[in-house]
User: Fold this.
Amino acid sequence: MTSMKNSIQEFAIQGGPPVFEQIKSISNLVQPDFEKFLGYSTPMFRDEVFSGAGAVQALLEKRLAEFHQVAHCVSLCGGFWGLVLTMKHLALPGRNEVIMPSLTYRRLADIVAWAGLTPRFCEVDPQALCITEATAQACVSDRTALILGVHPIVNCCDAFGLEALSARTGIPLMFDAVESAYETLRGRKVGSFGRAECFSMQSSKLFNAFEGGYVTTNDTVLADSLRSQRNHGLNGRGEFMGHGMNANQSEVHAAMALAALDGVHAQVEQNRARYQRYQHNLQGLSALELVPFDERERHGYKNIVVKLTPEWPISRELTLRLLHKENMLCRAYYSPPLHQKATGYDMVWDDLSLTEALAERYLMLPCGYFVSIQDVDHICNFLADIVRHGQALKTYEVGQ
Ligand SMILES: Cc1ncc(COP(=O)(O)O)c(C=O)c1O
Assistant:
């Protein structure tokens, strides 16, 4: 690999020029085709419908239902509220705990709390880094209202196993599938597992709708409930169905999502090229292990996650500090785990020592629309520089 830093003095932490002049982030930030976006926006002006329940939203929901091979898609203003409303509908009455991993998205426990429920954290599989049938089973009790499967950011969790657990126990199962919009599991499209799967269309996701989210389901009662819940509790005829909120998706967001959907296969090819370049470059760097995508399945290849092996010379925290100084906005995967965060609501867990150990070892590397193949080379070369200058860099560890 070509060195980016010939000596420790050249590191940005020492005042040297950063590897990148502009920030390289882990956000996807894909830019859908502008002309397509304008084209999809036209019906808003023709029909004078702007704030949802118009032709653009209807087209998006139809296209997404086809994409995920499910009966219904309900689009909303964000993934957050899609998750909250689905949980409120599915949770077993008289019970309050939601089984979910702690090693996951930073805000997921907040979402459970907004639904008036209590996170019950389970362990994760050390290889797949996600909830499994066995780890969820260990948390089942007469307080369990719901199982929340979360697909990790590389590959999927064993949705078939969780479906078997749900069938055995009668506890409803839903998924946070935000990071798996493009994936398959044993050839079946993500979107149709459990009672529902929830997605985000925020700009860092595979489908950039500026902001937005959607829920896929084969359950007509749930789909009708979500449609009225997102619209102040009113159904399509304006009749009051029950407690709701204003969580609808506007037409202009739906137009952006449609343009993103048209470009998704091309985007995935670019993501795959970046991933393969990381794979190729990191082969020679044994101190880091790239978390591999399972090539038997279909993937969006958006996220790049690496594990720091015992050979890696410095701590994960110092690694992140060095990367940030060089304008690589990498993030820990996932730290702190949710049970270690201060919150104002109740959370329940037993021993999560595996989660705690894993939360120290992984990080996400730059990816997405603004990261070129040459950028990937620079990133990998810089990582090799860290190994080369590891001894000298140790003096920057906090407490040294
Ligand atoms: C795994 C996961 N779940 C849920 C959400 C919430 O989605 P939104 O930002 O659309 O509210 C996000 C957003 O980053 C996420 O990454």
